[in-house]
Predict the 3D structure of the following.
Amino acid sequence: MLRFFRNISGDKAIWGVVALLALFSFLPVYSASSNLVYVVGNGTTIGHLIKHALLLILGFGIIYGIHSVPTHFFKGLSIIAMPVVLILLVYTLAQGATIDGANASRWIRLPFVGFTFQTSNLAAVVLMIYVARYLTKIKDKTIRFSESILPLWLPVFLILILILPANFSTAAILFFMVLVLCFLGGYPIKYLLGIVGSGILALTLFILVAKAAPDLFSNRVDTWENRITSFLNGEDTEADYQIEKAKIAIATGGLVGNGAGKSVMKNFLPQSSSDFIYAIIIEEYGLLGGFVLMFFYLLLLFRIVVVANGNETVFGKLVVVGVGIPIVFQALINMAVAVELFPVTGQTLPLISSGGTSTWMTCLAIGVVLSASRKANKAEDKTMLDGENPLEILSGQL
């Protein structure tokens, strides 16, 4: 064990924030799992807690293993992983079955272990590393749009097209983060505007095709439409039911909450241990608890920016931004959904919500950030000694 801690390197603040979030997650997951046990009739609360613990242990194993890999190795690994990811996405989308009543075009079941794996989460991490690699390659070169179509935008749109039919929110977030990363990487804005227009056109075409042949996509377009309509008009739908229960939980929590394990709405909120766990946290720990949790995610964002700013290589800067910021972005979206600032998206709360794939892929991304931070620490120390601002705008640095 002592040898394990001696071999830990990288940004200690990120290690600390991630560990605190993981430790805290046991409380709301154990509390909210009673919904799965007594309402759904699935397992026992101790069983869900043990499963969550095993997932986190494996997740921290991923962090430890990945953070030991030199950052530049991820360039080649992203090229190797890209065709694997595409094959997994095609296989996942082609299943057309259900797992425990859910649309299986998002998940595949891992053999022997009994866990399900959401391939789009892996695809998101691999794609961001791949884009960072490409932007590093063309740095300080004259960029022609025609030359970037095959090596950059073809893989991006292939992955987005394969994710979109079953998971619009993940595809939209991934598309947005790719655009942000390309902007920071110096890709011309006029070309990015063209890509945005192409994306909107492709989405419109997809919706028209799905409306004309709804059986092709398991009515996911209708689900998106119902969620947006519910958000805008307050109509009585399943999504509206979840939001209403979440708001009741938040209102019941008040300033300091009802106490650990004393949530009532967890028994009525269908996704109380995953998508809407933030509402349960506020009900049990109050607005203060909710703000403290948000503070830790923002602290994680701050340290990610510091690590990116302090890295000496262009690829290190870009890959930290590409895989690190989406973690915090996803957390803020999850919180916004719980308080009805956004329509229901199905995004979990990173490191807090139950669920294996989200935890593992978040840990994978954190491992990459920590790998980059091992060299960034030296550069950051030099920056502080020189009196420079560690929050200097990343686009200017790149």
